Amino acid sequence: MRVLTWNLFHGRAVPDRPRELLPEFGAALAAWDWDVALLQEVPPWWPPDLARATGAAAARTALTSRNQCLCVRRAIARRRPDLIKSNGGGANAVLVRGGIPTDHRTRRLRRRPERRVVHAVALPDGTWVANLHAQVRPHSETRKDLALAASTVLRWAGAAPRVVLGGDLNVPDPALPGLARIPGSHGVDHVFARGLSGRARTLDAGGLSDHRPVLAELV
Q1: Which of 138, 145, 189, 193 has its CA 20 to 30 A from that of 19?
Q2: What CATH number does residue 73 fall under?
Q3: How does pLDDT run across 90-99, given as a tens digit for each residue?
């Protein structure tokens, strides 16, 4: 099983490219070999288009922060994402190739300073895969988010033998009780699992985003 996690930086590149980069992000994701993609800081209107571009059977979305008056934010972000930055609106997304999830659950972890959520899908084979973009600072609050997210996902999964939780965890040394970190994570982008082991590696996104994609191969 291959799980990709990538923070899309609200659809921006480094250095800035003054246009909507949906085609470029879609092409990059389509070129990589993954079964489930966990995406953070996604423009909220992108997930259906990313699913089509990548051949994903399903896309599940959880809105995060700065989504009031989204039509106005979207109009600006589609023209100059480098100007509006994170104010273009935010979402997390899970893309699944090879089957329609049998369940999708979301829990809000906090409202302030920004809305943060954990959400997870149950795959047809019973594996639960969860996506998280944790609070940035202080790290004491980040770790509270991580612990709550882990306990929530494990409760959702129940007796399921395989559970994966990945994302932008916003600390270099996260701990998720009940889950083991997969070696090879990069910076603050990590994959954890129960009932699966393996190794992760980073991919080259050609300057898209300020995060490197992390691909974990699990058995």
Answers
A1: 189
A2: 3.60.10.10
A3: 899 999 998 9
